[in-house]
Design a protein that fits this description.
This protein has 145 residues and is an all-alpha fold. The chain contains six helices and no strands. The termini are far apart.
Length: 145
């Protein structure tokens, strides 16, 4: 439910603040999701309400940013009438990750523990943020659209 509502909110924020803000929203969302996953994995004795809040944050920032991912693609390729292939590619990456992520996390849980599994998820979010930093900086400087 959090992701469904957040998709509309983040889409609105991305439109309100413009193209450069979209990458910032993505980085912020991936970072907050990653930090929430670390808290879930590393602090197993938190009160139940804290877990509910952390899972809410993960859902909000993971699912809620779907609209923003597609807006970034639309801005980059939609003007040239070439958005179909990038949209398809973005969907393909999501489907491939979705297909294999459960097996990979299951493997991590088999050979390790919950802390390692949640840490892996958090690291993937942090890597996503790090990969966007050079592009975001270039966009803010005006070097690219």
């Amino acid at each position: 439910m959090a992701g469904a509502i957040a998709t509309v909110v983040f889409g609105w924020l991305a439109d309100k603040f413009g193209f450069g803000s979209r990458r910032i929203l993505l980085g912020l969302g991936l970072t907050i999701s990653g930090l929430s996953l670390l808290m879930i994995g590393w602090y197993p004795h938190l009160p139940a309400a804290a877990y509910v809040g952390l899972v809410f944050l993960v859902g909000t920032f993971t699912e809620g940013l779907d609209a923003v991912y597609f807006l970034v693609v639309m801005n980059k390729f939609g003007k040239a009438g070439k958005a179909g292939t990038p949209y398809g590619s973005l969907n393909a990456v999501g489907k491939v990750f979705g297909t294999f992520s459960s097996a990979i996390l299951g493997f991590v849980l088999t050979i390790s523990d919950w802390v390692s599994a949640f840490t892996l998820l958090a690291i993937l979010g942090f890597i996503g943020t790090a990969l966007m930093l050079p592009v975001t900086a270039a966009c803010i400087r005006g070097d690219i659209e």
